[in-house]
Specification:
By secondary structure, the chain is mainly α. It contains 15 helices and 6 strands.
Length: about 375
């Protein structure tokens, strides 16, 4: 089993539904002359390079099958096994079975899947679109900004992608942000489930995500003014054991953009989600999310008037690039989900791949190749 030399620090982050109050991790010391902390001792790297084990791991990961005997022998008999290993990785990434694997991976990652039936839209098209972007080495930003071909189909027999436009009435498509299957799957009160899905899948972190430089006595830590969000009919400004504003100052500025999709993922001119109030839920209004004069935004200082604008902001966010690379790393290394399983990847481990991703036009397949050729993948 591959062993990690760096042990990730697991981040315990409150979920959007909880919005728990944050507390300082390290209270100030009361010692006048505290002893300096000793430098951490680096663990010895006693791993050895084994290209045949790496070949087996890569083949099972990319193609769901062990490597061929010819591939194994080519590495065993080579004076420079790095060369046939690299050639084998390139062949696997070009294999049509890699397309199947990407479709399945993105279904798992996006928590989506299912054919259209009984008025329910297909939940396959968003993960198929993501897989197509990776396989065809398109910019990962297209996942949020593409204005056509955002509901493709995939034929697992012919191993082919067929581009198709979504038909859910949006004024302008914006990648998976306007996908009807996504909007159906994550339909819920005030569109918060849709916002949470976006945040956790593509930014690899649960809410809260925006933090000011300091923590107030009340526990409020968002850079937004608390008064920017609504206090009625749901009091998002409440300060108590749970500080809702830490999450909702961000969420409430995004959610209205998703609020016009109904339970079947169809777009309307009016809001289609409900506000949970007694004695019965009511149709959500903009004032239920935001105070008068507030506009929708991706983050504080990054306005987003509509979903295409939101997609542009997301595609330009460095945190999205880091998340995509982290997910590719965990995929290659057979790790669990970054958010739900807290399989967090230390940034210093993947920083070279993040740099590559940002400089190669956000082509994730190229980064995945680099990970499979890296020292961490070939050493055991």
């Amino acid at each position: 089993m591959r062993r990690l030399i760096l042990i990730p620090a697991l981040a315990s982050i409150a979920l959007a539904s909880a919005c728990e109050q944050e507390t300082p991790n390290h209270p100030s010391s009361t010692l006048e002359n505290p002893e300096p902390e000793a430098e951490p001792t680096a663990l010895p790297d006693d791993r050895t390079v084994d290209y045949n084990l790496a070949l087996r791991a890569a083949s099972l990961k990319l193609l769901d099958t062990p490597p061929s005997l010819a591939s194994i022998k080519s590495i065993e008999l080579s004076q420079n096994p790095a060369v046939p290993y690299r050639e084998a990785v390139d062949a696997m990434l070009a294999d049509v079975r890699f397309r199947d694997r990407m479709v399945r991976w993105w279904k798992d990652t996006m928590r989506l899947g299912g054919e259209a039936e009984g008025g329910i839209p297909s939940r396959d098209t968003a993960p198929v679109f993501a897989a197509q972007i990776v396989v065809e080495e398109r910019s990962f930003g297209d996942l949020f900004t593409a204005s056509s071909g955002t509901c493709p189909t995939y034929d697992p027999v012919a191993h082919t992608f067929t581009p198709s436009d979504c038909s859910n009435g949006v004024p302008e498509h914006a990648g998976v942000l306007t996908n009807p299957g996504v909007q159906h799957q994550f339909f819920g009160n005030m569109a918060f489930r849709r916002v949470r899905w976006l945040q956790e899948v593509f930014l690899c972190a649960a809410f809260p995500v925006e933090r000011a430089s300091g923590l107030s006595e009340s526990g409020y830590s968002s850079p937004w003014l608390l008064e920017s969000i609504s206090a009625s009919p749901v009091d998002f400004r409440a300060l108590g054991t749970v500080v809702c504003g830490n999450c909702h100052t961000t969420m409430n500025h995004i959610a209205p953009l998703f609020g016009r999709f109904d339970a079947q993922g169809m777009f309307h001119d009016t809001f289609q989600v409900l506000t949970p109030v007694a004695p019965a839920p009511v149709t959500t209004e903009l004032s239920h999310w935001l105070s008068a004069g507030e506009e929708t935004a991706w983050r504080k200082g990054i306005p987003a008037a509509d979903l295409p604008s939101l997609g542009q902001a997301i595609a330009a966010d460095p945190a999205v690039a880091a998340c995509a690379v982290a997910r590719a790393w965990n995929f290659a290394m057979s790790k669990d989900d970054i958010v739900s399983d807290q399989a967090v990847v230390p940034v210093e481990v993947i920083q070279p791949f993040i740099n590559e991703f940002q400089s190669n036009g956000m082509r994730l397949k190229k980064v995945l190749r680099s990970i499979l050729l890296s020292e961490d993948f070939i050493r055991f």
